[in-house]
Amino acid sequence: MARIGLVAHDDRKDELCRWAETHKAQLALHELWGTGTTGARVTAETGLAVTLLKSGPLGGDQQLGAMICEGRLDVLVFFIDPLSAQPHDVDVKALTRLATLYDIMLANNKSTADAVLAAI
Fold first, then answer.
1. Catalytic residues per the record (predicted)?
2. 31-34 and 75-79 as β-strands: parallel, antiparallel, unpaired?
3. How do residues 48-94 score in pLDDT, each as one tens digit?
């Protein structure tokens, strides 16, 4: 069982929820953590159990980052919107930096998330 963090920018939340619905059976085998809004949407739209953290801009990104540092997260699925400026861009960069530094699987889009899920 892998510990998977789920987060998506506002313009990518629908896509993440569709991805989670498509992979619902496989995701149900893992421990899921999500930033507040993203995690709540995934639960509401798929029925999957997601442990909710704070909303990303309110500290959820940092909570996921702490989990990475503490070795409590194996995979980060973070659907990023590359075309919109994010007011909490510093948090986003810190989270992706930590995923890279601590060498956990990181998926920023559907294709990579498919490959990561197939590998765990």
1. 61 (proton donor/acceptor)
2. unpaired
3. 999 999 998 889 999 999 999 999 999 999 998 876 666 667 777 88
